[in-house]
């Protein structure tokens, strides 16, 4: 995998706890059905939510996806959950994009970072 040398790839920085992580784990249906466009739009929308700290996301070749959104407090999570565009995308996801998914919400009580010397 060539991604190991790509310095533009990096996890979300550690933040001062406490904060919250929303872990969305999913298995996609075959085909796009407008998923990529909606996913990009949702990323734009969530970045506008006061209290949103960042997001990490990965998908295995077999189709398992994990996205972790980090939020300052439960109120920020609720603002995102209540966003009308996000709610419409959730409905389309259940109708077209996901075989199944789970959502876990966790309070982060400890956070730290390692970065190899010379990496930017």
TrEMBL record:
InterPro entries: ABM_dom, Dimeric_a/b-barrel, Jasmonate_Hydroxylase-like. Gene3D superfamilies: 3.30.70.100. Residues 19-105 form the ABM domain. This is ABM domain-containing protein. It comes from Streptomyces minutiscleroticus.
